[in-house]
Structure formats: C-alpha cells, structure tokens
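Appendix B, example 12.
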Amino acid sequence: MFHNIKLKDGKAAYIQIYKYIKEIIENGMLPQGSKLPSTREMSSMINVSRNTIMKVYELLEDNGLVYTEKGKGTFVCKININVNSDWNIEWLDNINNYAKTAEELDIMKHEQLYKKGMISFKSIAPDESLFDVEELKRAFLNRITLEGEKILNYGYAKGYKYLIEFLMNYMKEKGVNTKGKSILITNGFTEGFDILLSSLTSKEDKILCENPTHNTAIKLMKLHRLDIVGIRINEDGIDLEDLKEKLKSNQVKLAYIIPSYHNPTGMVMSFQKREQLYNTLKKYKVPIIEDGFNEELQHLGAHMAPIAAISGEENSVVYIGSLSKILFPGMRIGWIFGDEKLIDTLESVKRSRNIHTSFLDQAILYEYMKSGSFEKYVKKVRNIYREKYELAKRLCEEYIPHKYILGDGGLYLFIKLMNINSRELLNRCVKRGVIFTPGDIFYTDGGGDDSLRLGFSRLTLEDIEKGIKIIGEEASLDNKVQSTQKR
C-alpha cells in the first residue's frame, strides 16, 4: 500500500507521507501492532531520503499513532478508529421485482429443512459413498500431467474442447444426429435453462411444460415472467389429448419436456409417446427444450432414445444434458446441445455473464469419462439404486394410503395420497424425524396438495423402511379420521 503514495509538487514531502499513513491507520487499514517498514525500506519504496522518513515517523509518534521499540522497529498504536455510523440504506426498499420473486420462490428459505439425525427423503442427489474417488484422482493426475499449468488458466466460455468433442460423440451414441449441431458447456441444468429462456423468450410469452414438473424450471420460468401452460400428467404419463387442446387454444413459444425419469414423477415416457409428442409439437411449430434428466439411470429395459434422436436432421430440439443426478454433482457440469447457429449465440450470452469458465473440472471429467470409468460406475450404481427403488415402491404400496404411485426407477417416487394434505402430513412426520418434499411445489397451477415426492437415493435400506413406515403411520391416522367423520 505504501507504493501507492503519490507526491505532489509544492508541498513538503514529509507532510504528504505523514497524512497518508495517518489516514490508513485511522481507517483501520493498518491494525494495532502492525509493523511499519524500516526507514531505509520506506525511503526506497517512496523514493525519498531516509531523513524524510525519519521525520515522518517522529511526527506519527508525537501524535500517538506509532511507537518504537529499540532494535525491533516501529509499530502501530492502539487508537480509536473513526467508524461512520450515520448513513444506513434500507436495502430491502431497493430490491427489484426479480429479486423479490427469487426470494419468494427460494424453497431453501421457505420449506422444512433437514436437521441432523433425520431420515430425509428430500434429496434426489446421488449417494456420495458410491463415488469412484480413486478413479477421479487418477483422472486429475493424468490430465494435469498432460496439460500442466495451462489447464489452470482462464478457459473459454464455450467449454473445454476435448470434453465438447467427447459429448458430441456421446450424443451420437444416444442415436442423435449431430449434423449441423454443436455444444455449449454450462454450470449444470439451471444455467443452461436460464440461458435458453433469456435468449429465446420475452415477458408474457407462453411456455408449455408437464404439470407437475421440475420446481427449479418453474422458478426460472416465473422469474422470466412467462405464462406457463401446464399439461396434465396422469398414471399413464403426459396427457396427449390435453396437450392438443392446449396447443389449439394457446400461441406457445416453447415446450419444456422431461421424458426420462421425469421430475418429480420418476416416469419414463415410452418411445411411441415420444414420437407422438414430437409430431404434435411439430404440427404446431413449437420448438422443444428437452431435459435429459437422469437419462443414464435407465435400468428398466433397454436404452430409450431421447426426443432429440427422433428429430433426425431437423433442428427443432434443444437438449440440456447433465450428469449431476448420477455423477459428481459438485463439479457442476452440464451442456446444451442444439443447432450450431443457436449455440453460437448462446455462447455470447453465457460470455456476457461469465467471461471465462473453469477448464480444470471439465478436463478432469473428460479424462474420467474417456477412461471407461463412467460405464463401470453406472453399471454398479444402477443395481444399487434399483434395489432401493424396488424396496421403496413395495413399502409405499403396503404402508402409505394412496390413489397411485408413480416412478419407473431412478432416485425417487411420486405419490398421490388418498385425500391427505401432504403439508399437514409433513409437519407431523418432521416431529418424528422424517422429512420429504410436498408435491405442490412441482405444480404450475397451485395443485398437488395431496401429493409428495420421496427421494431414496442417499438412504440406507434400513432407513428407507423405517422412514416409510413412519409416513404410513401418520398418513393412516388421516384416513381413520376421515372414515370416522363419514360415519
């Protein structure tokens, strides 16, 4: 900080230096006990004579700002720092509508929170005890050895070249035609969806989605002040007749669809229904944002091609990919796959928000994926999650009063309760150390107060059984009360 002293002509140098040091001491920038540079060092830094600095230190000491210990140096005294206290801004009065809406929709602030010792069915994150840490370490060492210090420098907004090339081939293996397409690396699904909405929609545009759907997607659509058109989901999945009716009566700008392990229902859309959905939206010329959520976990039958594969050489589908619900969510890596001209524009939008991106984590993921470790990991966790899924579904069917239970695998189940308010049920379960996600946060129209999502991915088999039995006991109390009232 002493290098910043700029001396002006016409004023005594020692006075200017004294005032500068006095100010930074009084402002607290040099705390009590800080040692000042020696007179020789200070004179060299400021390019003045040593006698000038000696005069400055004497003046500082005369005014009680420093003290000198023989043989040790000059130190800052304890002083009463002038703290400004008469100007306070009411920041909440300055918050705009965007920030107010974000706070209102922030479920971390407004929903029941997990407390240590609870059995939590809230999380749908992967079980970190299954992570292949040793292979990840090996991937890091291999990549840092190959690329050295340059991998630690700024990265381009579009993403790490080798990971992009790998993911392009990865999409091709899913059956997707990559001709005329490109990829933009993102910080997970949320950034990717937000970039797309920022680039493709305007206030009050109509956007179509399943109802219920991903609560983070609902939040982003509301933040962009879009008019959300929800398409009913029933026991057979998305209602295509409802879709057709909504398309007839609305001028829809975009459709947001989760065909695999739909959040929150856990349903996997059949290939036939994917084709019907695609052709219906094509008829009305509504572009599709496909959320490839949890696609890699398909453990009931063969791989199901994404909607992006159905589009062939057409460019009407934009695919958002992410591995965060199965592999290393802390790395925050996702991607947008779509028409190369669109991706070029989205790259600029991303760069306007985050001029550079981390290449280190992308490079580690690339090394891990190309080594074949990912395939081994997925094979292992599919079996473990399948066991948890089968147990959870059986227990829910047995103990929880329900109209129906949805979920084709993955990491969670969605339960339509038997005329039971899920929030009232949650409040009672929390008192017994069990927590889950009430279903109403996933609905676009305020519905779902008789539904809930149960995430089981991070729980042991013992806790799954114990937790579901507690939920069942509390839910059965509601049913008994209702039966008594009817009599």
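The chain has a mean pLDDT of 91. The chain has 17 helices and 16 strands.
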